[in-house]
Amino acid sequence: MRIDSPKRLVSxxxxxxxxxxxxxxxxxxxxxLTDWRAKPAVPFGGKFRIIDFPLxxxxxxxxxxxxxxxxxxxxxxIKHIQLAWGANHMARDEFVELLPAQQRINEKSxxxxxxxxxxxxxxxxxTHNAEYILILAGDHIYKMDYGPxxxxxxxxxxxxxxxxxxxxxEDASAFGVMGIDSRGRVNMFVEKPExxxxxxxxxxxxxxxxxxxxxxxxxxxxxxxRDADDPTSDHDFGKNIIPRxxxxxxxxxxxxxxxxxxxxAYWRDVGxxxxxxxxxxxLIGVTPDLNLYDTEWPIWTHQQQLPPAKFVFDEExxxxxxxxxxxxxxxxxxxAVVRHSLLFSNVVVREQAxxxxxxxxxxxxxxxxxxxxxxxxxxxxxxxxxxxxxxxxVADKARFEVSPNGVVLVTPDMIGxxxxxxx
Length: 423
What we know:
The chain contains ten helices and 31 strands. It is α/β, with parallel strands linked by helices. The protein folds into two domains: 278 residues, Spore Coat Polysaccharide Biosynthesis Protein SpsA, Chain A; 106 residues, Hexapeptide repeat proteins (UDP N-Acetylglucosamine Acyltransferase, domain 1, 3 Solenoid), CATH 2.160.10.10. Strands 1, 4, 5, 6, 8, 9, 10, 11 and 12 form a nine-stranded mixed β-sheet that branches. The chain is globular. The two termini are 21 Å apart. The mean pLDDT is 92. Keywords: ATP-binding, Carbohydrate metabolism, Glycogen biosynthesis, Glycogen metabolism, Nucleotide-binding, Nucleotidyltransferase, Transferase. This is Glucose-1-phosphate adenylyltransferase. It catalyses: alpha-D-glucose 1-phosphate + ATP + H(+) = ADP-alpha-D-glucose + diphosphate. Homotetramer.
């Protein structure tokens, strides 16, 4: 993969920005899908990993100095970044560097919060001499040009700007929620409140943080040092840094909207099995909200050298076919039927098997006459012949993980295959 910019304006402010992608968390709500990998390393969209989306946003926005902070079970994440985003893919003076937890400040502790993760690397960050620091979560799916947000930050003479989206009140308790005045200045910030504050002039929506922050670098360092000296702090941006600074400093909210229509832009947390399954299957739609075919804003990743997908046999009861589906390179559908499903690379579906409403991760083999519906099948699973998944809730719960909405998660460990080392 060679990263070439789409035709976009790269300004001084983006060149003077360093992006930090926080990628150390497990993402425990994804259950066994993150037993052996960090959430940002989870495959998404047929050929990508979740972290490819914020990293692609950075390079497409003209931000070519990026550091990825890792901690929890980061081997597959680190390997992917080295393959897809290493120095040989970037131009001179551009980089995507890895900052694993190294106990740089305190030899007795790892990263203890989002703010602490940045603080522990403050000596490295100083060497980059950036005027602005853009802090991102590495586990969300969206397309965003960060340039206008940084420009908004500069125009408002802000110390901190927070990217935000409108969410229904009933969903807002999962986010940091803010209140704003008529100028967009933040006057309240509550992390995961039981009773979320409403947006101005709306009883049904709240303004939620996307976990995207633009800081003036000097201001960020001052706040990190102050926070590190506070023994009562959780050392977290949402819990500690932001609530403390909104009263005495210039903190603004930046609404994430479509540039042309002004409507709420696409953004997904994919933090649960249900949301992960739904977001993947949304891509199958005729005009999905997330357009992976957009040449003006490509999503970059490591491109495996794979043969085209192949559909084998054309006989009654033995016809290889995929309907209303996305099928990636290296797949072989051999006398089987795939309907409304997304197949990642190198999936083999053998004769008379059927796959419906499912997300099949890479290197899966589905045995003859197996039947799968409404499932997520993890990387490397070998589904035995005649196995049925998604048809008997009682049997599924005894063997696998079943989400509140009935999506069945199957991992290699659940079917006696110790393949966690190839995540």
